[in-house]
Design a protein that fits this description.
The structure holds 2 protein chains of 2 kinds.
Chain A (H helix, E strand, L loop, with lengths): L11 H15 L8 H7 L5 H10 L5 H4 L13 H15 L4 H9 L1 H21 L14 H29 L7 H13 L22 H29 L11 H26 L10 H23 L6 H18 L6 H12 L5
Helix pairs in contact in A: 1-5, 3-5, 3-14, 5-6, 6-7, 7-12, 7-13, 8-13, 9-14, 10-11, 11-12, 12-13
Chain B lengths: L7 E6 L3 H12 L4 E4 L16 E3 L15 H12 L5 H20 L4 E2 L12 E4 L3 H14 L3 E3 L4 E7 L2 E7 L4 E9 L8 H8 L7 E2 L8 H8 L4 E2 L5 E7 L20 E4 L15 H11 L6 E5 L15 E3 L2 H8 L3 H14 L34 E13 L2 E2 L6 E4 L2 E8 L17 H21 L1
Parallel strand pairs in B: 1-2, 1-9, 2-6, 9-19, 10-16
Antiparallel strand pairs in B: 3-5, 4-5, 7-8, 8-9, 11-17, 12-16, 13-14, 14-16, 15-16, 18-19
Classes of the chains: A mainly alpha, B alpha/beta.
Amino acid sequence: MPYDTTATAATATDEARRQLEICNACRYCEGYCDVFPALTRLSQMDPGAISHLASLCHNCRGCYYACQYSPPHEFALNLPAALAEVRQQDWEDFARPQAVARLFHRSGLALAAALVAGFAVLFAAIAALRPESGEGFYATLSHNAMVAIFAPAFVLPLLAVGLSLRAWWQAIEGGPVRWADVTRAARAAGRMRNLDGGQGQGCNFEKEDRYSDARRWAHQATLWGFLMCFAATSVATLMHYGLNWPAPYGFWSPPKLLGVPGGILLCIGTGWLMALKLRADPDLGAARVWGGEMGFVALLFFVSATGLALYAATGTAAVPALLAIHLGAVLAFFLLTPYSKMVHGFYRFAALMADRRPG
Amino acid sequence: MTDPGTPWDVAIVGGGNAALCAAIEAAEAGARVILLEAAPRHMRGGNSRHTRNFRCMHQGPLSVLTDTYGEDEYYDDLIRVTGGKTEPELARLAIRESESALPWMESHGVRFQPSLSGTLSLGRTNAFFLGGGKALVNAYYATVEDLGVTIRYEAKVAHVHIESGAFRWLELESGERIVARAVVLASGGFQADLDWLARAWGPAARNFLIRGTPWNRGEVLRDMLDQGAESVGDPTQCHAVAIDGRAPKFDGGIVTRLDCVPFSVVVNRDGARFHDEGQDVWPKRYAIWGRLVAAQPDQVAYAVIDAKARGLFMPSVFPPETADTVEELGTRLGIDGAHLAATVDAYNAACRPGTFHPTELDGVATEGLEPPKTNWARPIDTPPYYGYTLRPGVTFTYLGLKVSPRAQVQSGHGPLTNVWAAGEIMAGSILGQGYLAGFGMTIGTVFGRIAGQEAAAHAL
Ligand SMILES: Cc1cc2nc3c(=O)[nH]c(=O)nc-3n(C[C@H](O)[C@H](O)[C@H](O)COP(=O)(O)OP(=O)(O)OC[C@H]3O[C@@H](n4cnc5c(N)ncnc54)[C@H](O)[C@@H]3O)c2cc1C
Ligand code: SF4
Ligand code: SF4
């Protein structure tokens, strides 16, 4: 009886299980990442366990180029793609409402439409709520109006992500969370350990079977740039409410010192990620959502680029239009967090937390 | 592009570990090198792409290797598996050179990892490749490309032209001629040529499965022997292990191996036992069962275990047949269920109490059974029952070219001036029979490097 790759592969999970069973009998890739050691510790390959492995995978592709069974071999191993499909399925299935997630994950066009809608909302708000007085941006849109729009646009999506994540955690049987899980995951994510090829040589994302650190650096710039921008906003909020020190802030203020370099890092990181993605083989990821993924990185790039442009335009007549464009993009980004590639960060972090190695 | 008239300094036949090591050495010595690989790019690397480790001598911890593995211990291990059928000078050379080969491999892109889970017993003697042999092969191809070696895929060599004791040119299957000052032959064994196997072993060989590449068909070996090159190794033998009978005809690789035999009862097509399943320990058992199955009718056998034994061995890529009774299991396996049940009943009745110990020879044996099972003989009585089909899977062949310690190919009239050989094609001098895990890559690396250095020195 010849080996039949189609017999069991009814769903993304079944296909991943088929491939993982081959890996479990082989184990050559054990040193690349956390997926393989976690695999050998499994007693059963149930859907929850497969979901966990899938979110541990960072799509470094080391195991694809090293695999003696990659297509056209009849075992047709393409673990990066198989696990990407499972992740994608989880992000869509655990999101509420699912239909929204399906739409935005797949379609870069839908993302663009959301972006334009974000602009429209901001332009309309600016036109309707023109403040009597105010300094800096607040001369265009009052602080209260901004809070009225952005507080819910920030909190509600996070709540949605939290609910999805809780359901997923139960599905993978993540167990009680300990502080050590959080610190371990933060260390792994902060260094992007799973993109270093296991020995610091990097991954096989855009240069096929040659290793490269480009994706790790680009992703790192994106992550840290994003976190700095986020910190800038948080600090500004604290300063506003806690210290009664409202914007605008000068260059040597904490929000700007975090925000400007953060914005530049984010711009470089996302631009670089897009360039790498154009060179990488789409068939080693979840090919059907390539457009949505690209659209999402482009949106992040747009957010950071318009933020910097807005800063550069301080005091000019371009501020109102730029402010609407930038805040519109931020609004779209926030609202899409539970329904776009942005959720991967949350799932990855949770997966790392649940990856408890003995000893 | 090079003018086709300009001869190459060194031509390398093959594209696996031995060929790549030779290419690197020759190119680093400054030679203009062409490497001819019969396979297309995605299938490059021969059997080397299926490997997982390399056996290495070392005084004290080295890279991922723990403790010490000295020359004498290594040599003793080799003598034990070959039963003394080995050329001591070449064997000791391979062993001694393996120690400096490891850092050389690392400096040419190979990465090692600690021994894989389930193979801890090899952590001292064998260095495992991160990502396995294909990652090693990829690293070497990248190195060779960077060194400016010309690589030709789908370039099968059909003839090595020898005139008055010296090599002149290679002829590809396409008819194209490659002229070079020196040649390194590293095209592996002939195990993928089933006709040749059938001539050597008998017609049963057509039912064998080939664990590695379909491209090692021995064209170059045959051609060289026809031109008077001296041979070593038993022409009728091949190294075969019992693998899952559902494995692909070629290239099934490591995942088709089945480690369940010691915990099972093994029967042939007629439902009869034919050998002591509890005999001996790994790694020798491994090779014994390839031959045993090859000698059964239709070259097939069936291993039966019960629920107690599941999880005692590395999982196989194919799920076993499963049934609630032994008889039904037999039917599912396609043999006479009643016969199988009778065999298992007789075996169960011969089992004696004892303390079962899966990882050592536990002496738990049958009594009054022919053939006996001398270890791990627990009754097979706990459903569900599982069954695996076993077939012989050929790893490599033993017949090869005789070489000097400098890897130079010998003919009846002395050495051929400018012909070297490395890897499986000459391994018969060192591995006359049996196999020592990780030694194939040692031979290929050590002699590949020597051959590359010698060929370059001759050409330059
Ligand atoms: C499944 C499996 C697992 C193994 N695991 C290990 C292990 O873990 N450790 C170990 O030490 N050994 C292992 N071995 C043995 C090991 O593969 C060989 O000893 C080793 O790869 C031999 O290297 P080589 O370069 O001589 O031959 P190969 O790697 O087989 O290379 C031969 C090359 O020659 C090419 N070729 C053939 N004919 C022609 C022609 N006419 N013209 C041009 N090119 C040609 C082939 O395409 C191929 O590229 C394993 C073998 C198998 C099958
Ligand atoms: S990806 Fe391929 S080489 Fe790696 S563990 Fe899986 S089967 Fe083995
Ligand atoms: S793609 Fe990389 S991270 Fe994902 S399973 Fe393979 S080696 Fe691990």
